[in-house]
Design brief:
The protein has two domains: 22-267 and 483-487, Aldehyde Dehydrogenase, Chain A, domain 1 (3-Layer(aba) Sandwich), CATH 3.40.605.10; 273-461, Aldehyde Dehydrogenase, Chain A, domain 2 (3-Layer(aba) Sandwich). The protein contains 15 helices and 25 strands. It has helices at residues 53-69, 77-93, 95-106, 110-134, 170-183, 198-209, 224-233, 246-260, 282-294, 314-325, 346-362, 395-398, 414-422, 437-445, 498-504, and strands spanning 2-3, 9-10, 18-19, 21-23, 26-28, 33-37, 44-49, 138-140, 149-157, 160-164, 187-191, 217-220, 239-243, 263-267, 273-276, 306-310, 365-368, 385-388, 405-411, 426-427, 429-433, 451-454, 469-470, 473-474, 487-495. It has a seven-stranded mixed beta sheet, with helices on both faces. It has a six-stranded mixed beta sheet with strand order 12-11-10-13-14-24, sandwiched between helices. The protein is globular. The termini are far apart. The structure holds nicotinamide-adenine-dinucleotide. Nicotinamide-adenine-dinucleotide binds next to helix 7 and helix 8. It comes from Nocardioides endophyticus. Pfam families: Aldedh. Residues 27-492 form the Aldehyde dehydrogenase domain.
């Protein structure tokens, strides 16, 4: 069933809006629908089309057709940049609306949604537009004197790129894939997370309004194990950019490899160490520790969930931390004064509460929080929770909890802190707090993490590459080389003197050289 309305939303005369998918430039509905639930209130925010493999196939076919026709990839980088910039301007004009929609579907406090579901993706789009304008899609190759040849080195778009994103920062994480893919001239199929499709559908509308040819960008909503798995194993998809759990990332990587050796970028989970050195400004580090573990109720891959404290300041630090947490305002995420929102759904709340129980069984102590905030009967809330007496061999210190739970670990020497920090399957992020930038830099150099922040946390700035060591991922997003993973390198070499070239490789040529050698 297709329609050509200009909006992802139909009212259908029901009380809540209904979001359709965007495939080949049209808004497409499905026979089956599902509900998007506000995690703060448990109210239905909207319904969305439940796409299936046939929708994914139609979207991939549209993307392939546009790629073959060259309607997008044959434009100049500047022409593509102009479309991305017009889109960014249109989204900027709708920032408040986008942020409110993101808060309703995902539960992040409105200040965070404004940052991470509006200002950040808009700024990221502009950054990728600038890369499209300045990227060296074709360069003269080196002239190699000894074997007398020159050439051309080209960066060509990979083809059809699939993007699969989670629910925690849905628009930003989608733009981290869509932006470089489109900037480089690819066609794209995005699968949003089931729970948070709204931002990406609005992005599709604005890309189309900005002049993106139909079929170059497609959004399919639906289950991960159906639509996501199908895209990962689709033989007509050339590249997949995935953000999500390490567990699903491995499945995606396996399917991508088994089907057609797709190029893969994986941004996965984390268990970020946040190391406070003895000379750190204590109040700044206390606030930094809270920002590190509590942003979006701890539902961020790069969260600083393992706080490493020197034994000499441990008790004083924990006391201040617990005191400071009393200032955190838990409440309606649409209220600009709220600091902490709910978890995404009931399953995630149960999982987090389960980890808190596990911590007690493992011998840790709940120093504050540990349950559902008092007086709450709707929504999926968990109190800010600090676990002390945690050791790095406990499951709570090794596994990603993805909730407002901080594990505090003690260390005696800086070498021990570095060893504890690196003793993890993950390697996404880390923090170091010190009054000496030189000392903090020296520690940072020894940490196995894709991003290390000194005296701050969560600094996902588009100018710096982002991604993980070890099981936190494969490849990088953002940064000056962000377009590279969305391109194939083609080396074209032109022989100036074929005889010389062959001799350089030790090939004896008959005299006179036969025609095939010229
Ligand atoms: P998830 O892995 O369950 O789901 C992520 C996406 O994958 C969703 O769109 C889901 O529908 C889809 N999916 C599920 N099963 C699939 C399958 N078999 N094949 C293909 N796609 C499938 O993750 P989540 O619970 O939605 O998000 C939280 C996780 O994401 C955490 O582990 C977090 O650390 C990670 N994350 C990582 C980054 C990063 O940049 N490294 C950023 C944000 C979140």
């Amino acid at each position: 069933m297709t329609s050509t309305i200009e909006s992802p939303v139909t009212s259908d005369n029901t009380a809540v809006p209904h979001y359709q998918m965007f495939i080949d430039g049209r808004w497409v509905d499905s026979a089956e629908r599902y509900e998007i639930i506000n995690p703060a209130t448990e109210e239905i925010v909207a319904t969305a089309a439940k796409g299936d493999v046939s929708h994914a196939d139609t979207a991939v076919a549209a993307a392939r057709r546009t790629f073959q026709e060259g309607v997008w990839r044959n434009l100049s980088g500047s022409a593509r940049a102009a479309v991305l910039e017009t889109t960014a301007d249109a989204l900027e004009a709708r920032s408040e609306e986008l942020a409110a929609a993101a808060t309703r579907e995902g539960g992040a406090p409105i200040y965070l949604s404004m940052g991470l579901n509006a200002i950040t993706p808009i700024s990221n789009l502009r950054y990728f537009a600038e890369l499209a304008r300045t990227y060296r899609f074709e360069l003269p190759g080196p002239v190699v004197g000894g074997i007398a040849h020159g050439g051309v080195v080209r960066r060509e778009p990979v083809g059809v790129c699939a993007a699969i994103v989670p629910w925690n920062f849905p628009l930003a994480l989608a733009v981290w894939k869509i932006g470089p893919a489109l900037a480089a001239g690819n066609s794209v199929v995005l699968k949003t997370d089931e729970k948070t499709p709204i931002g990406a559908l609005e992005l599709a509308r604005e890309l189309q309004a900005a002049g993106l040819p139909d079929g170059v960008f497609n959004v399919v909503t639906g289950d991960g194990e159906v639509v996501g798995a199908h895209l990962a194993s689709h033989t007509d998809v050339n590249k997949i950019g995935f953000t999500g759990s390490s567990e699903v990332g491995k499945k995606v990587s396996e399917a991508a490899s088994r089907s057609n050796l797709k190029r893969v970028t994986l941004e996965l989970g984390g268990k970020g160490p946040n190391i406070v050195l003895e000379d750190a400004d204590m109040q700044m580090a206390v606030d930094g520790a809270i920002w590190g573990f509590l942003m979006h109720a701890g539902q961020a891959c790069e969260s600083g969930t393992r706080l490493l404290l020197p034994a000499s300041v441990h008790d004083r630090f924990v006391d201040r931390l617990i005191e400071r947490l009393k200032d955190v305002k838990i409440g309606d995420p649409l209220d600009a004064t709220s600091n902490l929102g709910p978890l995404i759904d009931a399953a995630q709340r149960e999982r987090v509460l389960g980890y808190i129980e596990l911590a007690k069984q493992e011998g840790a102590t709940v120093a504050c929080g540990g349950g559902v905030p008092a007086g709450v009967d709707k929504g999926y809330w968990v109190e800010p929770t600090v676990l002390i007496n945690v050791t790095n061999d406990m499951r709570v210190a090794r596994e990603e909890i993805f909730g407002p739970v901080l594990c505090v670990l003690r260390y005696e020497t800086v070498e021990e802190a570095i060893a504890i920090a690196n003793d993890s399957d993950f390697g996404l992020s880390a923090g170091v707090w010190s009054n000496s930038v030189d000392t903090a830099l020296e520690v940072s150099r020894q940490l196995e993490a894709g991003s290390v922040w000194i005296n701050d946390f969560h600094m996902a700035n588009e100018n710096y590459a982002f991604g993980g060591f070890k099981q936190s991922g494969v490849g990088r997003e953002l940064g000056a080389n962000a377009l590279d993973p969305y391109t194939e390198v083609k080396s074209i070499q032109i022989s100036m003197e074929p005889d010389i070239s062959k001799r350089a490789y030790g090939l004896a040529l008959p005299t006179p050289a036969p025609a095939w050698s010229r």
